[in-house]
Amino acid sequence: MELYIVRHGQSQANVGMPILDAHLTQLGLRQADLLGQEFADIHFDRILASTLARTAQTAAGIAAYQSPDTVIELVPELVEADTPADFEGDRAFLQSVYPRVRADRMQACAFDDDHARARYVLEEYVFGPAYAQGFDVERSDREGIVMRERQQNLLIVTHCVFIAHLLSHLVGFPFDPNMVVSLSNTGVSRLALYTINGMRRIKFKSFNETRHLPKDALSS
Predict the structure, then answer these.
(1) Among residues 75, 65, 31, 73, which one has the least CA distance to residue 185?
(2) Strand-pair category, 153-158 with 2-7
(3) Which distant-in-sequence residues (6+ apart) come within 8 Å of 45 by Cβ?
(4) Which one of 61, 116, 127, 177 is separated from 37 by 20 to 30 angstroms, measured CA to CA?
(5) Cβ–Cβ under 8 Å, residues 31 and 182
(6) Local structure of 39: helix, strand or coil
(7) Which domain holds residue 176?
(8) Whole-angstrom distance, CA of residue 3 vs CA of residue 193
(9) Is the residue at 6 inside a domain?
(10) Would residue 101 count as lying in a domain?
């Protein structure tokens, strides 16, 4: 499985407006569209976004360049770190950004902290499909090494600090709240998940890619 983790486009909060459920700025909408063009040749089997407006808008910019039946699944557990536990997104607005938005739940389950929430997201939406639901491809070499993987592409659109929590679990480094992980708006981090001789493997392929953005569209 190829896992793409994307930070949302520039939002009102990124330019000094202290809004919890900030929308994308005009630059943020442009960034999402540019990323959609960059991803146009990649088929995403699933697109997940948080229930905050800025991620749904970013996912919509990407989905516009996918097949007409592409669905954006809203996952409330993907909201930014420190989002109030009782937050519920604006369902009407979220469903207006794209014709095929699926919003089964609007409020996240209860967790002890954001790090535990990130672990839940990975177990529920990433590790299960990547490792526990069968494999499409198997390759072996003369030394008896057998690699198995699912040929799927999963896109998760979420938030800067929450991405740090996800990456902490994925690559096995302790999360430190005092550590700053710098991500550009619509920056892309990409990982491959597969097994070697039955052992789970995760390969970190890229971090915070912004090649889809010209210099005048870069922001953080």
Answers:
(1) 31
(2) parallel
(3) 152, 153, 154
(4) 127
(5) no
(6) coil
(7) 2-202
(8) 8
(9) yes
(10) yes
Tally of domains in the chain:
1
Neighbours of 217 (CB within 10 A): 19
Give the chain's mean pLDDT.
95
Ordered alpha helix ranges (H), 5-129: 26-38, 53-63, 91-96, 114-121
According to the model, what pLDDT value does residue 178 have? Answer: 83
Evaluated on CA atoms 128, 174, 5, 98, the torsion sign reads: positive
C-alpha 151/C-alpha 136 separation (Å) is 6
What's the CATH code of the domain at 137? 3.40.50.1240
CB-CB contact of 185 with 7 (8 Å):
yes
pLDDT, residue 73, reads: 98
**pLDDT tens, residue by residue, 1-51:** 999 999 999 999 999 988 999 999 999 999 999 999 999 999 999 999 999
User: How many residues appear in the chain?
Assistant: 220
Domain-located, residue 213: no
172-206: pLDDT as tens digits: 888 888 887 889 999 999 999 999 999 999 999 99
